[in-house]
Design a protein that fits this description.
It contains 20 helices and 13 strands. The chain has about 650 residues and is of the alpha+beta class.
Length: about 650
């Protein structure tokens, strides 16, 4: 063991940087602010575990629809250890001290500002958390990486640039790069000295990625590739030093290549004038006879689709997390404005309909936050089971949770848009004026439903992924559907499904009913369309909506029960938000189920199925007004989102 002392004379950046870089091996952390010192007792532990004997279950991806978990088996933000909390606090301070004071400069694209912030983030270790230590990175757990993304997401432009750099631009190298490529590029990307870009999309092939036209041709002596084509909407395009470019070798083999910015034949087009995220760089790339060494082929020739699609799982997850962080920040603006703005002789925060906006926003953040940290908890628990953590095995373990990643992306992006809209509504005319942040939140939020796969595409992925696994025998979905179909054709039972005297028993009953609705609708759709179900996009999307709502409510319920059992002060707010979410869940699930059933049948059959649906949806509503006021009271007292 050894102790590292940080002198009072060190700058804030130096203190934070030393502290953060040391935390990868820290067991204990003590801050003595009154002396101006940071004291870290350093051990030889490479990774920071969630606990010494974590009960978190690495449940199979998608199993939440079929299995029942206990609160102890899922990770929540309240389970963070001290090291993780300190890292989150460091990231939050960076956001306050570095990002927010530079909003105007970032949004105006003042030269060097965004790239400079990326270098500062690199100095603190934020850009190297997912890079192994042997390549100059921190090599830390996914929980820590998630916390950093969450806390830095206070400005859409910065979080877009940061997320693209640390995720889709860096992870392909971590997972698929050769040793030479990793040693050459990862230290520079990890330090923030270089910024990365990911060049997949083209003007004629956005979501249809496999039909790109960019072509790569290997020279006759096999020493270099010549790449020709154009890429569109490349995040960090104007500031990136290294691009992961996708092209088809000889027009056939879908592959990935590493292309440096100063490579002859590569030119960066003009900045796009976008609706939102004005401060992030988005440019087209033109590759005209662009020659790169053959050694810059990333991974195997013809296997580029593995890189493109697997890295997007992390991209979707991180985007969902960023939306949670951004929504939390927007809610803070909403609450503070509502407390300060007076109308009819009192603060508008005292009006019920303003409180409803606050509580509905907090409820959705709570659901998104609970899903995000539950998911990363399962990922870390799964990775902890590996005796040797190789890049390929890490990628496979993350791929297991592809459906949860897509769920978080869809829910998080739509949640942020709703909250941005409510922020504008709360601020009224001021919300529509550029000098106030609401207008920027509103514009910035829209892109999240487009990139990392549109929400429409991700809804198809959610249902398609589950059905594919079911047909392959990897997920017992079909037996569960059959069991449910047998059950619902029997006379109704008088027994409740809510767990009797358990905490939040009504909400548990709603969850059980929502799961049954999803399975029932999936069973009806499968019988009607069979293998052609994948072509029924509207039905697939409605099934996905029910699946999303189930994961959201279950994650919220398990967390609320854990808080209640632990006697936390935030338990009342969590319970109230779960109650509000339960009512929204059953309403959305019933509506989606009706659409599915109507698309699958008619006449007496449809009437019978609708009668079954009505039975499943026959639940007593909560006092939504009372719950809303409870949540709003907690938010207004704290002037922020009421939990972590």
């Amino acid at each position: 063991m050894q102790e590292r002392w940080i002198p009072p004379a060190a700058s804030v950046d130096e203190k934070q940087g030393i502290a953060f870089r040391t935390l990868q091996n820290a067991r204990h952390l003590h801050f003595f602010a009154e002396l101006g010192y940071c004291v870290l007792t350093v051990g030889d532990t490479k990774h920071m575990p969630t606990s010494t004997a974590s009960p978190i279950v690495a449940a199979p991806g998608g199993s939440f629809l079929l299995e029942t978990r206990t609160p102890a088996e899922v990770f929540t933000l309240e389970d963070l250890n001290e090291e993780q909390r300190q890292i989150a606090a460091t990231a939050a301070q960076f956001a306050r001290d570095e990002i927010l004071p530079n909003v105007a400069a970032i949004e105006a694209k003042e030269p060097g500002v965004l790239a400079g912030l990326m270098r500062k983030a690199g100095a603190l270790g934020f850009t190297s958390v997912d890079i192994p230590e042997e390549y100059g990175g921190m090599g830390m757990d996914k929980m820590t990486s998630t916390l950093i993304t969450d806390q830095l997401s206070v400005l859409g432009s910065f979080s877009t640039a940061f997320g693209a750099h640390t995720g889709i631009a860096t992870l392909p190298l971590v997972w698929y790069g050769s040793e030479e490529q990793k040693h050459s590029y990862l230290p520079r990307l990890g330090s923030g000295e270089w910024v990365g870009g990911y060049a997949l999309s083209e003007a004629s092939s956005g979501s249809d990625a496999m039909h790109i036209r960019t072509r790569a041709t290997l020279s006759s002596d096999g020493s270099y590739y010549t790449i020709d084509g154009e890429k569109q909407w490349i995040t960090n395009g104007g500031i990136a030093n290294l691009y992961t470019v996708f092209a088809k070798i000889d027009g056939e083999k879908f592959s990935a290549f590493l292309v440096e910015r100063d490579t002859p034949g590569l030119s960066v087009g003009a900045e796009e004038h976008k609706l939102g995220i004005h401060g992030s760089s988005t440019c087209p790339l033109v590759l005209d006879g662009c020659k790169i060494p053959a050694a810059n082929l990333l991974g195997e020739a013809g296997k580029g689709h593995h890189i493109a699609f697997n890295v997007l799982n992390v991209g979707r997850f991180k985007l969902g997390v960023a939306c949670v962080g951004g929504a939390r920040h927007a809610l803070g603006h909403m609450i503070r404005y509502a407390k300060q703005r007076r109308a009819f002789g009192k603060p508008i925060a005292e009006f019920g309909l303003i409180q409803r906006k606050i509580s509905a926003s907090a409820m959705r953040i709570y659901a998104g936050e609970s899903m995000a940290y539950r998911t990363v908890g399962m990922i870390d628990a799964s990775l902890a089971q590996l005796e040797v953590q190789s890049p390929r095995e890490t990628q496979k373990r993350i791929e297991e949770y592809a459906v949860e990643c897509s769920i978080l992306k869809v829910y998080g992006s739509e949640m942020l848009s709703l909250i941005a809209d409510e922020l504008v509504a709360t601020m009224g005319g001021y919300g529509y004026v550029e000098e106030y942040p609401a207008e920027r939140f509103y514009r910035d939020a829209r892109i999240n439903r487009i990139f990392e796969g549109t929400n429409e595409i991700n809804r198809l992925i959610i249902t398609g992924w589950l059905m594919k696994r079911a047909l392959a025998g990897q997920l017992p979905l079909l037996p569960a559907i059959k069991k449910l179909m047998d059950e619902v054709t029997q006379p109704p039972s008088l027994d409740g499904a809510g767990g009797g005297d358990e905490v939040l028993a009504r909400e548990a009953e709603v969850l059980a009913s929502a799961k049954k609705m999803a399975l029932f609708a999936a069973g009806v759709a499968s019988q009607r369309f069979m293998a052609a179900l994948q072509d029924e996009q509207e039905v697939m999307a409605d099934l996905a909506e029910m699946i999303i709502q189930v994961y959201a409510l279950e994650s919220a319920l398990l967390r609320a029960r854990k808080l209640a059992t632990a006697g936390k002060n935030s338990a009342e707010a969590a319970a109230a938000m779960t109650g509000l979410l339960a009512d929204e869940t059953i309403a959305l699930a019933e509506q989606a189920s009706r659409r599915v059933l109507a698309a699958c049948g008619e006449g007496d059959l449809l009437r019978t199925q609708l009668a079954i649906l009505r039975r499943l949806a026959r639940l007593t509503p909560a006092d939504a007004v009372g719950l809303s006021r409870t949540v709003a009271r907690h938010c207004i007292q704290l002037e922020r989102y009421p939990l972590y």
